[in-house]
Amino acid sequence: MEGSSYVKGVGLRVTTPIYNREDQVRYLKDRLELFIEVLNQMEPETTDVEDIDRLIEMVDSIEEKFQSFKNRPDAEPEA
What is the dihedral of CA 72, 75, 2, 25, to 10 degrees? Predict the structure, then answer.
């Protein structure tokens, strides 16, 4: 889904494509900051496989969005 992005379990959603490079970088930075927050809140003694899977899903989602931005033109297509 190009027009919608969702981080499972976190609820971060973008509903329209982002074409401006500055906004794309800001979006990716926000997602990475969220990832770091989640990582910092984990306790090694209580972290289980599902928690690690969630981290992997977050990284995969960030990578997918990065690739999407990389392949997107700088300007919004004309309607």
Answer: 70
β-pair partners for 13: 6
For residue 36, CA distances in Å to 11, 39, 68, 78 come to: 16, 5, 22, 37
Higher pLDDT, 57 or 13: 57
User: Residue 65: helix, strand or coil by DSSP?
Assistant: helix
6 vs 78: CA distance, rounded Å: 26
Span 26-79, pLDDT tens digits: 999 999 999 999 999 999 999 999 999 999 999 999 999 999 999 888 767 666
First vs last C-alpha separation in the chain: 19
Token pair for residue 55?
Answer: 């981290």
